[in-house]
């Protein structure tokens, strides 16, 4: 009789969020790590862009300075969100605001470069532009994947029977999804590189 109670007890505990809550949480944390890596890779491309633009467009120094300052803010340690902070709306808003400021500055710089045909024709600039566009797409995809993982986690901790383990055993709190704070910020910027007529 004791041997029959053990599998029944184990099965009932398994259905109460003992394993599903931490599994969903770890999945969301892993997706957040992908988001941070994508933003860091984008930030790593900016010094190269800055050097190319600096040489060809000295008069755009103000816009270039804004990009460099926004990059410094977006990558500063005090703005980063650790996996333990994913349920802190204030930290998420600060991180999102810094990333959106960098996106806006970068978009303004890339648009201002349109005025310099000699720069647009440089092979180094064209390659870098392709890398930046690809990175913006990667950022968008990792944000989508993170938000989906957060949705799965938040659903898990709010639905029966997982809510039992989530509240009693794990003390789970909802995670904060990444939200664009400005309309269209989640869309990668586009450049029209066609020659002017």
Automatic annotation (TrEMBL):
<keyword id="KW-0472">Membrane</keyword>
<dbReference type="Pfam" id="PF04011">
    <property type="entry name" value="LemA"/>
</dbReference>
<keyword id="KW-0812">Transmembrane</keyword>
<keyword id="KW-1133">Transmembrane helix</keyword>
<comment type="similarity">
    <text>Belongs to the LemA family.</text>
</comment>
<protein>
    <submittedName>
        <fullName>LemA family protein</fullName>
    </submittedName>
</protein>
<dbReference type="GO" id="GO:0016020">
    <property type="term" value="C:membrane"/>
</dbReference>
<dbReference type="InterPro" id="IPR023353">
    <property type="entry name" value="LemA-like_dom_sf"/>
</dbReference>
<dbReference type="InterPro" id="IPR007156">
    <property type="entry name" value="MamQ_LemA"/>
</dbReference>
């Amino acid at each position: 009789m004791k041997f029959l109670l053990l599998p029944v007890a184990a099965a009932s505990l398994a259905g109460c969020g003992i394993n599903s809550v931490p599994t969903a949480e770890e999945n969301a944390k892993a997706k957040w790590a992908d988001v941070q890596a994508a933003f860091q890779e984008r930030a790593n491309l900016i010094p190269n862009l800055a050097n190319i633009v600096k040489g060809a467009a000295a008069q755009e120094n103000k816009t270039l300075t804004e990009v460099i300052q926004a990059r410094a803010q977006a990558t500063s340690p005090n703005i980063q969100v650790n996996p333990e902070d994913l349920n802190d709306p204030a930290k998420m808003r600060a991180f999102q605001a810094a990333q959106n400021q960098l996106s806006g500055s970068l978009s303004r710089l890339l648009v201002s470069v349109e005025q310099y045909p000699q720069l647009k024709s440089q092979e180094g600039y064209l390659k870098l532009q392709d890398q930046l566009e690809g990175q913006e797409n990667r950022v968008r995809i990792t944000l989508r994947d993170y938000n989906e993982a957060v949705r799965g986690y938040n659903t898990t901790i709010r639905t029966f029977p997982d809510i039992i383990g989530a509240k009693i055993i794990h003390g789970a709190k909802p995670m904060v999804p990444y939200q664009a704070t400005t309309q269209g910020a989640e869309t990668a910027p586009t450049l029209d590189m066609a020659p002017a007529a």
